[in-house]
Design a protein that fits this description.
A four-stranded antiparallel β-sheet has the order 1-2-3-4. Strands 5-6 form a two-stranded parallel sheet. It folds into four domains: 50 residues; 48 residues; 68 residues, no CATH class; 67 residues, Winged helix-like DNA-binding domain superfamily/Winged helix DNA-binding domain (Arc Repressor Mutant, subunit A, Orthogonal Bundle), CATH 1.10.10. The longest helix has 18 residues. The chain has 283 residues and is α+β, with helices and mostly antiparallel strands. Helix 3 crosses helix 4, helix 5 packs antiparallel against helix 6 and helix 10 packs across helix 11.
Length: 283
């Protein structure tokens, strides 16, 4: 709370009351020609301070909702917006709704929820897929499309196979997709499907080594280089990992830097971190 007073002799006193852990702290600063003096008083409640003719500080609002609760409410509202949207809202849109800058909102969202808005949205879409499949009323492809996944997947397939005709899935295709979805959810069940692996002899050696990394564990590029008997080919190993086009089944996401920090990933570092976190829970 704040009150300004000018006393005789040109002495200006400014007092500001702010919320503290055990009450309301009154800082009283006296400005005189000889210098400054500071006095502090502690009021047990805001009512006690108001009886002494102090009003609430207009900057910190000590009588309002604590800042931590304001932040929690804003992030909860952002989570609800993500959950109810068919497509993941843009980060700038979420930040604007919360009344924050993009950088501050992103940092605060991760601090409170433990994940970024993008990872949170992807997780919610995965939950929608599972819910659709559990109710028995949707096919695998319908569930994936209803969850909002299709556009980026279809574009990627069209770019990789420009001469292919994309057709709707039949029963056999549904079975294959169900196996893949189950494998992504729990890699320990394995994936007994033929893979279209195309690479150089060296790349395929690296990719085979990647499949030998146990679920829930990671290794470094140097570790893979040693495993294939080429300890000096660390950069070539990194290039082979980057060239891998079969996510999860060839688990290049399990390769990290020497210090354990995540390195680059063809499908995004955030997705890599999400995969590693999910696998750690199944280990």
């Amino acid at each position: 709370m704040v009150r300004n007073r000018i006393s005789s002799g040109g002495v200006r006193r400014k007092v500001c009351l702010r919320r503290q852990e055990h009450g309301y702290l009154l800082s009283s600063e006296l400005s005189v020609a000889a210098g400054k003096a500071t006095k502090r008083h502690l009021f047990p409640t805001s009512e006690e301070a108001e009886k002494c003719d102090f009003r609430a500080c207009k900057r910190c609002h000590p009588n309002g909702l604590p800042l931590s609760k304001q932040h929690a409410r804003a992030i909860a509202a952002a989570c609800r917006a993500i959950e109810s949207a068919e497509k993941l809202p843009a980060l700038a849109e979420l930040a604007k709704s919360a009344g924050m800058s993009v950088f501050y909102f992103h940092r605060l969202f991760k601090k409170i929820t433990g994940v970024t808005p993008k990872i949170y949205g992807t997780a919610r879409r995965s939950e929608r897929v599972r819910e659709k499949l559990v109710d028995g009323k949707s096919s695998v492809t319908e569930a994936i499309y209803d969850a909002g996944f299709p556009e980026e997947l279809v574009r990627d397939i069209q770019d990789r196979f420009p001469r292919a005709n994309l057709l709707g899935g039949d029963r056999d295709f549904e079975t294959v997709v169900a196996h893949v979805v189950g494998f992504v959810e729990d890699p320990k069940i394995g994936l007994d499907l033929p893979l279209d692996v195309r690479g150089t002899v060296f790349q395929e050696r690296v990719w085979r080594a990647l499949t030998e990394i146990p679920v829930g564990q990671t290794t470094s590029y140097a570790g893979i280089a040693r495993r294939i008997g080429a300890p000096k080919s660390v950069r070539a190993v990194a290039a082979a990992c980057a060239a891998n086009k079969i996510a999860v089944a060839i688990p290049c996401h399990r390769v990290v830097k020497n210090d354990g920090a995540p390195s680059g990933y063809r499908w995004g570092v955030e997705r890599k971190l999400a995969l590693l976190k999910a696998e750690a829970s199944h280990a």
